[in-house]
Target: DNA-binding protein
Amino acid sequence: MGLFDAPKPVRVEIKGHTLQCVICGHQGFHRNEVKLERAGLFTSDWSDPHAICYECDNCGYLHWFMPK
Ligand SMILES: [Zn+2]
Model:
């Protein structure tokens, strides 16, 4: 079956705007948190550097965001 392997795509809002895929206009995404490698940079105030990326459920394009 495999139905239970795939998480449901979610709608994403960024500052009150519904995220739409810039490629295909789709509004379903899979959320991923990615740890950033920051070797060589001194970011002492940034204890846990990570970015959020939303993968378009339709075409797979990745939309990257830095948490504010
Ligand atoms: Zn897309």
Observations:
- The chain is about 0% helix and 30% strand.
- The mean pLDDT is 85.
